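User: Structure tokens for both sequences below?

Assistant:
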Amino acid sequence: MLSRRRLLVLGGLTGGVALAPFVQSGDTRNAQPQHVHGPMHGAVHDHAGRVPAVRSGPAVTPFSVRMPVPATRIPSVQTADTDIYRMSVQPATAQILPGLSTPVLTYGGAFCGPTIRARRNRRTLITFDNKLGHETNVHLHGGRVAAAHDGYPTDVIAPGSGRAYLYPNAQPGATLWYHDHAHHLEAENVYRGLHGFYLIDDEDERRLGLPSGGYDVPIMLRDALFDDAGNLVFDPADPYNRPTLLANGKPQPYFEVAARKYRLRLLNGSTHRVFELTLDGAQMTQIGTDAGLLPAPVPVDRLVLSSGERADIVVDFAQAPLGGHVTLNDVAGAVLRFDVVRKAADRSRVPAQLRPLSPMPTAVQDRKLVLSLDPVNIRALINDRVFDPARVDMQVRRGTTEIWEVTNSDTNVGGSGFGVPHNFHTHLSHFLLLSRDGKPPLPGEGGWKDTVLIQPGETVRLQVDIGSHLGRYVYHCHMLEHSALGMMGQMEIVN
């Protein structure tokens, strides 16, 4: 019999009452549970390894703190073709909850990390100095980079050492992010703060006239659990209990806006949660997904983002009265309130065409991948195998495309009667979502992606653009507690 504790380890269920209606639904896109995870290290612990006495955390009045915009890092050196940065990976304290100091792990001392703004076809070189007491590395999520600079899970930076990562930015404009990817540590390191935006600016995109400058706002969404002293609790025994929703590192904040159009770059930076977002008081128009702009804008009433997924939306706050409010909500409650406080000129626009899709070459290979949990051995698997860095699971030819069918087989984990959601992220390679269980994807899923949510029993069909770099890259569930347990495979890109 599968124990509740072991079930939490592998699946992170919210409980039968919350999950059963979702699992039995005929349309897997119409209801999303709050996905949770379980123990990886044994007992519940805070950053210092202590077992907290109080696990509910202090209450925070909604909309009582202002949402900051992560600071944009300025290159320390610029050459003819390269922007050069140096950044520490370091412990720090942050005021996340009002009046309390929280120990966190950071890039450059900031929670969330500083934003890097790169330019298409202009290189970025970042040296990360590890000032933590344990190993780390850095993965540019969504980046098309050489294998040596991808942040391979076992290619880590030792404490006291540094590592330079070179990013060519030879890809269209997109909302990317950088985060820790050290195997077995990735979930806790990201949870404690090792995450930041990486935005690629594109001249073709600039000509479209979309909202820009101060009206182009990155927003990282995530959840957290705090003890009464304000310490982050990485809770492996009861991990669905992360009740505090953060926007750019602040709990249910407000953000003052002008009565005009804004581009909002939404990122699910949590390690596990699925956000189901709606906007009260204005219309959302989705213009982009993981790897950049959609072919055309799509009005949406709801956005579903699993861990690692991004969506760029445009919201015209002139739809609300001056002095009014527009609220971004999740199924768990309000996330962020926009306060319309002033008028402003607005010459931005959302054109009818954004980034046309180029014809895809014929796929050279079909593959089937199955994601599953092993409750007996406490492992997470792809095609019945746990990740092994010494094993190549597939060889693929660079510059080609393939069709991958990825199935989430976890409809009844360990005979529990419960299903478990997963998602799927490819390093280097981007893909087009062709179908979900034979049905067309939603319009907002019609662009290039690198991460996709897969519900229990669901099969997604992807056309994968392999990319031009040679070497070994991983693909995995981006619910990071699952990848830490081994739900990861390895492809070798060859000529």
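Moving on to the next sequence.
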Amino acid sequence: MTASPPLEHWPLIIIGTGFAGLSLALQRMNDGQEDFIVLEQAQSPGGTWRDNRYPGCACDVPSHLYSLSCAPPWDWQRKYAEASEIEAYLAHLAHSLGARIRYRAQVRSASWQAREQLWQVELDDGSRLTCRFLVAGVGPLSEPAWPDLPGLENFTGPLLHTARWPRDRDLKGQRVGLIGTGASAIQVGPALAPEVAQLVIFQRTAPWVVARKDHPYATGTRRLLGKLPFLRRAYRAWLYLARELKGLAFLWPSLMRRIEKGVRRDLAHQVSNPQLRQKIMPRTPMGCKRILLSDTWWSTLELPHVTLETDPIQHIEAAHLVTETGARYALDALVLATGFRYQDNPMASLFKGENGLTLEDFWKAQRSAYLGMMMPSFPNFFLLTGPFSGLGHNSIVFMIECQTRWIQSALAHVAAQGKNEFKVRAQAYATFTEEMNQRSKKTLWMQGCQSWYLDPAGRNTALWPGFSLSYWWRTRHFDAKDFDYA
């Protein structure tokens, strides 16, 4: 009989090397705490920015705001950094953690052991680890969503999902179909258009698109920002406050309606073709879905070899996409810009709390988390960027840093009390969830359109229904009365 491998124990295990996992790891290192290990399923760090490498991939948050305040400054090349630069930045941060990161360590399951008051983590290679505290920084937007199209599996050409783009894929001179007009599509479409022979874009819902106003930083600007910490901090603060003010329009829909009028005027002025203008004029309230940033989307749609098809796809026949009105498009390759599985992310099935209850089953009633981080029945377990901690108007990195500081405070409090176990009280969790539900009803996200923010019952479970400053205020201290200890 083969003996089971010995258990390896750590006080803290962090899963993932995207912004979330690295933020907590660096925070602990900066605080002189090296009692942790970071598990990464891939052979390199970066999370979303390692996996999303499609042409044109870039951030829609200014680069100086889309970075960790606790990390050394980075010489950003553009106002909106490209994916390759963000990946390099995260690799630089990961390098400073050295052997604290274990690569090719994919988590198969993580189970709470009530008697020992420990989490047991099993990896794909069969090895097992235990820890007192477990933090999942795997990200809510990590599992690609594949469209449910009859015949998709029989398409004869390559199927390329923007979230799993192969390196060095060349589509030059080919006839390419692009399904989707969301955040990834409006980046990959303009990047592919100059190279391909034909680009057919299949649109279900016209998105709201505003100017990105991207530009490279001048050499002198970069030099000043690198040499003058005060100037760099002031610039970051200005970027933050400018975006925070935009949150007013999400919380008071009447303000957004005024902005709508200006965007409609811009679209009418910039797109000369009346038929195309009619197709891309949004029908949903601005802001109830993600507002997209692009300087090239509208002009790409006007290119002679680009077709915008708004008739729904009926099925796929070998190399042809057939619409409901019978139009047939012969294609060499198909690009799927169809986003991620958020509401049903299979990540939730990996974690088992008290009595073997999986997070997936716990969330059947509603996907929620106290302050976006903790759930009853899951002691000593934290989510980073969990439900109600996303943003529609500002940088998610700000929210991540709020969470990592709160987790540090929580761990310090538990240690000071000499306790081995703590969990959020069911009543505190229920009160928080109800507050989020009520506050969300007043936001634009629940004013008449469907999006990945909403669950099947039509409730927002993704975004924080308020200013990010209010989230900072809520997480600035650990509120001990909301928890049970053992």
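User: Anything stand out in the second?

Assistant: The radius of gyration is 23 Å.
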